[in-house]
Amino acid sequence: MSRPTFLLDGQPVAFDDGQMILDAARAAGRYIPHLCWHPDFPPHGSCKLCVVKVAGRHVSACATPARAGAEVESDTPEINAERRTLLQLLFVEGNHFCPACEKSGNCQLQAMAYDLEMTTPRFRHFYPDRPVDASHPEVLLDFNRCIYCELCVRASREQDGKSVFALTGRGIHKHLVVNAESGRLADTDFSAADKAADICPVGVILKKRVGFAVPIGERTYDRAPLHELAMPKTEGKG
Amino acid sequence: MNAPRKLRIATVSLAGCFGCHMSLLDIDEQVFALLERVEFDRSPLTDIKHCGPCDIGLVEGGVCNSENVHVLREFRAECKTLVALGACAVNGGLPAQRNHIDVGRCLSAVFQSRPGMDTAEVPDDPELPLPLDKVHPIHEVVRVDYFLPGCPPSGEAIWQFLSDLLAGRTPRVASPLLHFD
Asked: Which architecture does CATH list for A5-75?
């Protein structure tokens, strides 16, 4: 029995009943950009980088079930321009100074900006004041780069069973907090071996003393672009 | 006889480190090809003090003081095509790391309360441009036509960008030349 298909940018993609557009596309070797989505977790649908157009409506590909015969637009100048705008908003909302960031070259936000050829943040910068937390002996937290994907929150809660992180506040006041009375990472049972320590797509959760073990220019996304490395066959190598 | 007119280029480093200018020199022997097509107006390379009418303006560095604002506006007024060259011009870069510190407190910490200063006063010579409360990328002050990020953009990226511009193409610096670090 043949599986149902939908059209992704005009090409048929087969899917299983209940499968999300993004999952089905990945299984078929087709990349749809994403930041807050991760194969080990249910869809979060917050970054909106996976936005696609289905029957003229914008939906998150990670959280929208595929439907037989649907026409999905993803890699079009219009949608990519909208994704670029989302990236620009993320860049001006935090403090993203790549030349001074240990994560540069391994950062999915930066690699996404390369993929989408974002050359300017375009909007007015917020330059928020977000002090770093260097209290933990093994790990540094630089909140300036948080994009609220909640991957560390989910990993710590669901895989490490620790619930070290949480997002608090609403709208523009939303921010990442540490689950300790002092608010300091050192006062939690967080460890550098936790799943949450390796999951940050940007440069918030950084292991100490290894920041420049691999030099700038020889890092993950210096060697290959995100749209290749994010696909299943190379998953985990990044 | 009728050789095409050379394009005029002006360059400046505002709140930058001249690293992007060094990278411009990193185009190595291509500089001869460049000089066949362009001549330099105001630039650290010519020491001309004010910008005349130009085709291309390359601005390195962000805007950190009143003088930067005047120079940047002069560039915008005189240059047909204005380019933000490098990370600091694009998003403020390293100088913008002071943006979460009150500028008054910053000056006082450096000049008044630091031990070993001869006179504990914030310098106020009228020739010194006043610092702005925040460092801004240049697109927050004037309209910018193109952006070439990188700290600095590589000589290869700058040459690709200028080649496009000189040939009348829309400049496009994509992966792997596009870098923010």
From this structure: Roll (3.10)
